[in-house]
Amino acid sequence: MTSQPTLTKPEEGPAGPSGPDTGLQAGLKNRHLSMIAIGGVIGAGLFVGSSSGIATAGPGILLSYALVGTLVVLVMRMLGEMSAANPTSGSFSAHADRALGPWAGFSIGWLYWFFWVVVLAVEATAGAKILEGWIPAVPQWGWALIVMVVLTATNLASVGSYGEFEFWFAGIKVVAIAAFIVVGGLAVFGVLPGVDSDRAGLGNLTEHGGFLPHGAGAVLTGVLLVVFSFMGSEIPTLAAGESEDPQRAVTKATNSIIWRIAVFYLGSIFVVVALLPWDSQSIVDQGSYVAALDSLGIPNAGEIMNFIVLTSVLSCLNSGLYTASRMAFSLGRRGDAPKAFARTTRRGVPQAAILSSVVFGFVAVFFNYKFPDTVFLFLLNSSGAVASSSGWPSASRSCGCGRSSRPRRRRSWSCGCGCTRI
């Protein structure tokens, strides 16, 4: 009988000058990983970018979210299977290294790291814009610096501090979007008083040009617009190597991905397109969620949404730094990056990997301020393209190639369907 792998042993790295190197430590509790899993699918892209998708596909944007959500479910099941059997900080990069060869692990790992260090600049800039609007005495670059320094200190302290911050960040997002769905749902079905019943209702799904006002092709265009809002859903599998019970936590996170996407994405977007006509100018001018809150008569809707978006931005920045540093750590352990990246402190923190990721994040922030329409735009577009075209496909391919070596294998339909869809 095949023996089961030891799942709770921390990853070891080479001894470092700062003292005994204990490797990564299992500092993430199950509640941390659960909230990381939930928060990973509720990004700022959902709140900010959904208005473009609605304007493009109308109510049919629900199909776009459903298509991408199905793909994410398949990919997460594949990653969950591999991460439960072999929990590692490198996630699909490490799995690709084992299943496809060192070339795959090297290229996928560095491309994924590049994506997240550019995201650090994007999120720091987005958060700085909101904070500057509240406290204009501090310039935007100053807020970006403050945000980066605070969250860097959090990640340098311990993996537990990262998990605790992410737990509360994700908690705020979950409460906010759940309240939005409940209140908005009551308004859609005519239960909430004070809402214009002639404007809000299920009729908005079929009126104003129909459910697909721009045709079925607009649904595929919508897929391209919404796919990036799902980036980050794979973080729980990357954090598996530092959780107390990797197999249980990862299995729970991957099995719950279906209801998380159904509730937080499809549920909230359904409320938006049912509350307002899809071609309402307020959706374009104010953003979909702010316009929906305004239609409910909620005062200071813009400021409320700014707070929620800021929370999402800080959550993404916090997770982005964690993800980039752990990918750099994994590359260092495999000899695909400087060995210093694989050294950890007494608290099990890959200090060099974190600081190197932050440095590149600051460089990207500089490019954003100096060359926003040229260099930074190129970095942003290229990072998004390589992340979406390498990470998920590699997970699918690695799952198919390495299934025979894993002691616990799920049904092959998920891997087969995932490979076909990707």
Automatic annotation (TrEMBL):
Q: Which GO terms describe its molecular function?
A: gamma-aminobutyric acid transmembrane transporter activity; secondary active transmembrane transporter activity
Coiled-coil segments on the chain, per record: none
What kind of membrane protein is this, topologically? Multi-pass membrane protein
Main subcellular location: membrane
In this protein, which residues make up the domain named Amino acid permease/ SLC12A? 32-387
Keywords linked to the UniProt accession = Amino-acid transport, Membrane, Transmembrane, Transmembrane helix, Transport
Intracellular or extracellular location(s): Membrane
Q: Where are the transmembrane segments?
A: 33-55, 61-79, 100-121, 141-160, 167-191, 211-231, 257-278, 304-324, 352-369
The UniProt entry, under Gene3D superfamilies, shows: Amino acid/polyamine transporter I
In the UniProt record, does the keyword Membrane occur? yes
Q: Name one Pfam family in it.
A: AA_permease
Q: What InterPro entries would the database entry show?
A: AA-permease/SLC12A_dom, Amino_acid_permease_CS
What does the entry list under GO cellular component? plasma membrane
Protein origin, superkingdom: Bacteria
Q: Where is this region: Disordered?
A: 1-23
Q: Which family does it belong to?
A: Belongs to the amino acid-polyamine-organocation (APC) superfamily. Amino acid transporter (AAT) (TC 2.A.3.1) family.
Protein name as catalogued: Amino acid permease
